[in-house]
Amino acid sequence: MYLKNSLVAREITSFEEQAVLTEWTRVHRPYGSDFVVDDYTKYTDATAQDIGSTDEYLDIDKTKVISFDLDAIDKIQNKYETENYYVEKAAYRLKNEIDGTLLKEVYNFTSYADDGTAGGTAGNPHALTASTAAKFFTNAGALLQTAGCEMDKTWAAVVSPMTAATITQTMIGSGFNTADSALRNGYAGPFAGFKVYVDQNINHSNTISLTSNTLASTNISVAGVTLNFVSPIGVIANNVLIGADTTATAANIVSAINGTAGAGTTYVALAAADRAKLKRLGVVATSALGVVTIKTYGKVVYAKAGTNAANVTLGTQVEHAILCRPWAIDMVMQKNIEVQKNKIQRQTGYTMLIWALYGIKMFQEGKDRGLDLRLSAA
Questions:
Q1: Does residue 144 sit in helix, strand or coil?
Q2: Is there a contact between 285 and 331 (Cβ–Cβ < 8 Å)?
Q3: Sign of the C-alpha dihedral, residues 327, 198, 144, 142?
Q4: Is the CATH number of domain 1-33+55-202+317-378 3.90.1690?
Q5: Which residues are within 8 A (CB) of 92 and not within 5 positions of it... i.e. 6 or more apart?
Q6: How would you write the pLDDT of the chain (378 residues) with one tens digit per residue?
Q7: CA 171 to CA 173: how far, in whole Å?
Q8: What are the φ and ψ backbone dihedral angles of 330, each rounded to 5 degrees?
Q9: Using CA of residue 33, residue 38, residue 43, residue 44, what is the dihedral sign?
Q10: What is the H or E stretch that residue 56 is in?
Q11: How many angstroms separate the CA atoms of 187 and 195, rounded?
Q12: Among 300, 319, 358, which residue's Cα sits nearest to residue 99?
């Protein structure tokens, strides 16, 4: 029940394919070619336009689980409801993962709104204030309407708590209220003609630019996880090898953050607590030409320090809020959240498994029915 009442994903997502899929692992939804309107000359054959279809599909490819052991003695000797406490905590963590993954679909929308939408500099994220909020959101709505998005349903905006707070400042005395939002499916109230939902897992992005490869005695930190630039690599956890150039060093940062190939060679594996922190926040990195781009669930803290910290430039963190027609994103929960309790042989306890099986997809028809709202999270 706790999970059901706080999963914002259910408020903006279509589950129409869920009724269709009872087995297998893929949902197909082909879309047809579009038409143009021709002039007609009487007594002259109209030109037939070619028609065709392109297949799209949603894969049920996400199986997520949290497992822990609980001994019966702990239950007896603890005055608290130990099992309920940890099951609820695991469900909340699983909820965050589902929400964060679904909200990552923001990057697939065809269009976006930024500072130019509110009369500022196009290409930059907009620094939302109480005085610009109404203009930004109404102009963003006009962009979506111009793109042909239907207005048959009230559009939804999904924003971070900080953006919701700014909207609240704009709407003081007008009924907009973020209090107890988690208990009401994240719904905070109406604003600019939209239903506004609040989610702490709104995707954020940032860049780390290496302006020089002189990085000895320097470190960067992402969400409190510190990476130390060294050469040679050494054996200390969280070390990142300074490569032959900034492009190579940036690639090593990406490998360290993502935990991909190269452990022990281009980086030293992160401490277990640091790896867990990055996983909880959905931190994923990519790089190109010495610039690392990092995407996260929610806003995180970035920092740099050390002798050559001037050779590292931290970008402006960007919130990627969503404005969309409801159900622009599709989701299938082939197996809803389940708590499974397995007896441990020759012990007095149980292994708890909290798991779910699902798939998420933004089909072609959804890509023009939403906007990536790029807001400054500095």
A1: helix
A2: no
A3: positive
A4: yes
A5: 2, 3, 6
A6: 444 445 676 777 877 666 666 556 777 877 777 788 988 899 998 888 888 888 887 888 889 999 999 888 776 656 557 888 888 888 888 888 988 999 999 999 999 999 999 999 999 999 999 999 999 999 999 999 998 899 888 999 999 999 998 988 887 755 565 554 444 557 777 888 899 999 899 999 999 999 999 999 999 999 999 999 999 999 999 999 999 999 999 999 999 999 999 999 999 999 999 999 999 999 999 999 999 999 999 999 999 999 999 999 999 999 999 999 988 998 888 777 888 999 998 888 899 999 988 899 999 889 999 999 999 998
A7: 6
A8: -105, 145
A9: negative
A10: none
A11: 7
A12: 358
Q: Angle between the 161-170 and 133-146 helix axes, to the nearest 10 degrees?
A: 110
Q: Return the ∠ at Cα 227 (arms to 222 and 231), rounded to 5°.
A: 155
Residue 125 burial (C-beta neighbours within 10 Å; 0-12, 13-18, 19+): buried
- Domain map (residue ranges) of the chain: 1-33+55-202+317-378, 213-307
Q: How far apart are CA 314 and CA 253, in angstroms?
A: 14
In DSSP notation, 243-279 reads -SSHHHHHHHHHHHHHT-S-BTTTBPPPPHHHHHHHH
Q: What angle do CA 24, 30, 31 make, to 5 degrees?
A: 160
How many whole angstroms from its chain centre is CA 307?
Answer: 34
Q: In degrees rounded to 5, what are phi and psi of residue 317?
A: -70, 135
Show the tokens assigned to 282: 């959905």
The pTM (predicted TM-score) of the whole model is 0.87
CA 86 from centre of chain: 25
